[in-house]
Amino acid sequence: MRPDPPQDADTVAEVGEFGLIRRVTAGRTQPPTTLLGPGDDAAVVAAPDGRVVASTDVLVENVHFRLDWSSPEHVGRKAAAVNLADIAAMGAMPTALLIGLACPADTPASVVDGITAGLWQEAAVAGAGVVGGDMVSSETLVISITALGDLNGLEPVVRSGAQVGDIVAVCGKLGWAAAGLAVLSRGFRSPVAVVGAQRSPEPPYPSGPEAAAAGATAMIDTSDGLLADLGHIATASGVGIDIRTELLEVHPRLIDVASALGADARHWVLTGGEDHALAATFPDAAAVPEDWQVIGAVRPGDGVTVDGRGYEKPPGWEHWR
Amino acid sequence: MRPDPPQDADTVAEVGEFGLIRRVTAGRTQPPTTLLGPGDDAAVVAAPDGRVVASTDVLVENVHFRLDWSSPEHVGRKAAAVNLADIAAMGAMPTALLIGLACPADTPASVVDGITAGLWQEAAVAGAGVVGGDMVSSETLVISITALGDLNGLEPVVRSGAQVGDIVAVCGKLGWAAAGLAVLSRGFRSPVAVVGAQRSPEPPYPSGPEAAAAGATAMIDTSDGLLADLGHIATASGVGIDIRTELLEVHPRLIDVASALGADARHWVLTGGEDHALAATFPDAAAVPEDWQVIGAVRPGDGVTVDGRGYEKPPGWEHWR
């Protein structure tokens, strides 16, 4: 499924582990939080809050990404983004990434260069450094990322804090990655906006700490899809959540794409994964920051309803199922 | 190469991602540094020093471990130990592990249970919690671990601080994992002491912070082999290191095993990897803590010599080569 590399390309086996590490780390700029970067037994990262927020995600070729659909740079950006979004969803500012990369000996070194370039780019967008990692040989290309973050004195916003009567709001793109997947699955490469959203998400990193400072009672990033992820908040908080479709923005671009493919744009918004937008609950409408969009409310009971009713289509994705 | 699982065993596909996560996390005890454990977007770990030490290692089935040589528990212990040793080698106390696990759909759930049990066991030995992770499907079994640690007010002990005239000392087992590998490679399963050392190392975790407090000028854990790892210190510090063989303890058990296999026990001690002992330089002999063994000195020049001469046999291991 991978495109043929150029015939003269160096493989990772030819460049070697230590050569690759040099290519990944040479000439990079670190943020001030990186007190000791790559090259020693471990990195040292500033944790001025006295607590560190940490999250790990693993991405596997042909499960989480395809190198015939996405450039290595996009894959790197996505691998970083899915993790950095988890940090933001706690209300923390990302500070650092650590990269574990396992790949076959015949992987072109340019693929590794591209993936790591994408990781550095996305880390820079979020304000984080790439502080360490490990590169090993494997039959399958696997990228494992750990992101660290700092809470800057705020309490972490967990999934279990939603209260009946809270307002539900979202920030960031919803349904775009699903639209991009639908386009790519049918063999198209455009429109670029939705295809790009599938290749690498654009989480609204600063909106996480912003929501925490505004008093958000629960927060999550939409990796599995809005309904599925709000379902995690509902379950953890012991409440129900109702989404009002008249409040739910469906971008005209998504409606265009859905209409061209005979698909349902609202279904993408409600259930599409991989956008890594933020969804949160707030004690009242006045607390919701300006760039967040109110979409519903927390109600007694359990589960997530849409306009007061259950939503029929399968809402999530589970590995090995 | 993997032994056949029992016919009635559940696979990870049957148990499912969320079921597996429940099995991994249910009923576990966390240390006080785990402020928020698994189950949310990210974990929160105490970092009282205001800095966090972080390291990632990736282990791949049939590259770093074999399930026909090691039980899943041993594999888990090893995966944790190699990372926790990196934290100790900076002079820090381990606080937390994050686990990325990628495995085929037909992997017996008991294998995942065993690996994670081993991770929890080794984390407990080091005083760390298992605070988060990710489980995904992959054609290859890959374990990616990130370890975090706290410096407790001490400066991190880097590889580049060795000074001419410093004393070189080690703490922990050396050559045991290599002896175990030699035994296993020849189809034997005993002696248990060396085979066990190959299956999972026993890094002397508290000796890292102890060396830092005693004024160690440089430190590393012996993952690639004593000469190779001291070579990393020599290169980073711009110095040479000389090992005196009359100071180098070669355990009688290793001499017995070597003699039975027609091998050289001292060669295992000098070059065997995967023991994750600690090697450090100290400003003088009086600074060396009691449980450390002086083995040589830092000299002008570069490289690592043994009794003043170069060591001929290939000293290290590099991936994809």
UniProtKB/TrEMBL annotation, chains A, B:
Domain PurM-like N-terminal span(s) in chain numbering: 39-149
Residues reported to bind ATP: 133-134, 159, 223
Family: Belongs to the thiamine-monophosphate kinase family.
Gene behind the chain: thiL
Protein name: Thiamine-monophosphate kinase
InterPro entries: PurM-like_C_sf, PurM-like_N, PurM-like_N_sf, ThiL-like
Keyword NADP applies: no
Residues where Mg(2+) 4 binds: 41, 55, 86
Catalytic EC class: transferase
Residues where substrate binds: 64, 274, 317
Pathway(s) this gene product operates in, as recorded in its UniProt entry: Cofactor biosynthesis; thiamine diphosphate biosynthesis; thiamine diphosphate from thiamine phosphate: step 1/1
Catalysed transformations (reactions): thiamine phosphate + ATP = thiamine diphosphate + ADP
Miscellaneous notes: Reaction mechanism of ThiL seems to utilize a direct, inline transfer of the gamma-phosphate of ATP to TMP rather than a phosphorylated enzyme intermediate.
Binding residues annotated for Mg(2+) 2, in chain numbering: 57, 86
Gene Ontology BP, a term: thiamine biosynthetic process
Source organism: Umezawaea tangerina
Family annotation (SUPFAM superfamilies): PurM C-terminal domain-like, PurM N-terminal domain-like
Highest taxon above the source species: Bacteria
Pfam families recorded: AIRS
Amino acids binding Mg(2+) 1: 56-57, 134
CDD domains: ThiL (cd02194)
